Amino acid sequence: MSEVELPEQQMSSLEDFVVSFCFSPTALLGAAALLLCFHLVSNKFTSQEFRKLPPGPRPLPLLGNLLQLDLNKLDISLWELSKKHGSVFTVYFGTNKVVVLAGYKAVKEALVGCAEEFGDRDIAPIFSDLNLGHGILFSNGESWKEMRRFAISTLKDFGMGKRLSEHTILEECHFLIQVFESYKGKPFDTGCPLNLATSNIISTIVYGSRFEYDDPRFIVMVRRSNESVRILGSASIQIYNMFPRLTSWMKNRQLLLKNYAAAVADVKELIMHRKETLDPHLSRGLVDCFLIQKQKEDEACVKDTHYNEKNLIFTVTNLFSAGTDTTATTLRWGLLLMAKYPHIQDQVQEELSRVLGSREVQVEDRKNMPYTDAVIHETQRLANIVPMAIPHKTSRDVTFQGFFIKEGTTVFPLLTSVLHDESEWESPHFFNPSHFLDEKGAFIRRDAFMPFSAGRRACLGESLARMELFLFFTSLLQRFRFTPPPGVKEEELDLTPAVGFTLGPMPHELCAISRQ
Question: For the chain, which domains are there?
């Protein structure tokens, strides 16, 4: 067919129509809508194709995934979700997005392989209320870097992992043994004396002196710290962290604020005493080192110094809480497990008798006691006292295992899934010291043993804690046999963990029967 030509007048009318249509308000709105749709579709395609987000259960408005989680057994709930959604997945705590890392490979790759990207601390509202961005555990940026560097350096100077710490711990063992002996084989709660003993180790390093077990203020300080650790893991505090503006009135939050105010007052008083008796040429502990450094920077007129009163107070409270609860809780689990599994206690005590005889244990004996060392490691693995570590936060956008995770995203490294990883442990849900022994009975290290976490935020007192666990545990097992109370069978001892920020045993009593 031949082309049809329109008359010039008709052509002009058509052009006018097209121009008028294209620039009419209706057409502009339509074009804008079309462009918006194209943009959204393009972004969605780009997000799915190049920024694949971690999967997860569908959240509800406002509540997120709360109805799918047991806040009293949060680590178990998340571990179950990982079996469906994979080792990297997303959950919503209310409106707060959290990426969970499950299994040894994912956790290690993130915390060690991508240490910078996953190295920031996520500071929940309750920890912001309590620490105000100061100290070591709940801070970020240059202040955290300097306080952590200072703490590690100072702890090493005062013997962390060295002979000086060994002497301090063994001296405290004697006091602890006296307390256990005072019960004359009758049932008692091991929690209080163990907490006082481990608290005295960190007190000696921080303040330069220990406390007597009957010191009323010391007893209150330790009891208050333990209460706070328990409350921090409660469901009500987790709800507050999700909806801080709506739930700030909660009783547990008010109790935590009260406890921390009292703890700060105690620390201020102890610091003031150290300041009044300070000798710039003789440091007695971490507080003295901090005060001396503060004096130097004040005299040099250093701007924006991190050596200020608040950082000192909260560094001390952080070390006091962390250095007391975790080690004492692990020792409580250890003694409970010995009472529950007497055949394992028999093997530990046989090794102690063979290697030590009646002499005092020393750190260097560890290499000659592989079975005892394996029992301590297995206690830490099974007890799993910090099941989700302390939450991390991404410091920048990162693509991890094929998933895009935005800067500032809260990250839970699920240590439960590492310490109980079925692909890493032969019998992950049972107490089995053979996990750390080879066929010849020699001790072996396991990469998936990660109770102190890993990477930039790993426990800075790990070497001290390891020494305490070995020396306290062996000293007590050398002197006592631990049994259930009369009338209670070994199998009746409950291994269900109590609810808390750290997972300790349920309240219980044991008998410490003298072996001498």
Answer: 124-369+376-385+454-514 (1.10.630.10)
